[in-house]
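User: Look at the shape:
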Amino acid sequence: MQTVLFNETIFGPVRSRRLGLSLGVNLSPRDGKVCTFDCLYCEAGYNAQGPGTTGLPARAEVARLLDERLRAMAAEGELPDVITFSGNGEPTVHPEFAAIVDDTLRARDRRCPAARVSVLCNSTMLGRPEVAEALRRVDNAILKLDSALTPTLRALDRPASPDFTAERAIALLEAFGPKAIVQTLLTRGTHDGEPVDNTTPAELDALINAYRRIRPREIMLYTIDRRTPEQSLQRIPADELREAAARISSATGIPVQVSA
C-alpha cells in the first residue's frame, strides 16, 4: 500500500506546478494520514494506512519549526514564494487550525513578507465558521471541487461523511465567497471494476454550472502528476486540459489556470 510522503511538520521547499517555490506545513501526523476524504488519486495514499502514532502537531511546535526553517532559508538566500498548508491529510481538521494560520501569517510578515500563504483544502470543513474565517485571512484559499455530480464526487473523492454531496460542497463554496480559488483535478479510470470519469461533457457542464454559482476569483484545473493509490487513473493530456479550460473560461468568465 502506498503510504504517506511527508514525515515532517515543515517540509520542503518543493517546486509546485501551481504555486512556485513552496514551503509545506503538514498539520497531520508525521507517520499517518488524517483526512475527511479518501481520494483515489491522493499522493499520500489511502486512509486505511491509519493515523499513525505521532498525533497532530501542537500549535507551538508548528510555529517554532516554521520560524526555524524560514530563518535557515533566509540565511541561505532563498526564501519561499509561498507557504502552503498541505501534507498527509486535510489541514482544516486540526483543532487549532485558525490559530496556526494566524501564527503563520505573523511569521510570514516577519521573515518573508513577499511570500503568500496558501491552504489546499477539500472544502468539507467550510461549514465551521472559524475555519471559513481563517481561510479568508490567507492569500490563497484553494478549495476542492472535483465533480458537481454526487455519484462521481463520492466515487473519486470518497468523503467520510455519507451526507457530503456535490450539492453540499457547492453550497459551502458559494457561501465562502469570491475570495475562493476552486481547484478541480480531472482524471478517468476505474475502481473496483466501476468507471470513474469526471472529464465527460456532462461532468464539464455540471462543473460550469457550479462555477457560475460559486463565482470564485480563479479556477485551477489540473491532473495527476505522481503515483496514485488507484493505479488505473489516467493523466489527462495537456491539450485536453487546455480545451476544457477554454470552454470553462468562455462559459463562466472566470480565469482558469491550467497545470498540465
About this structure: The chain has one domain: 10-259. The chain has a mean pLDDT of 96.
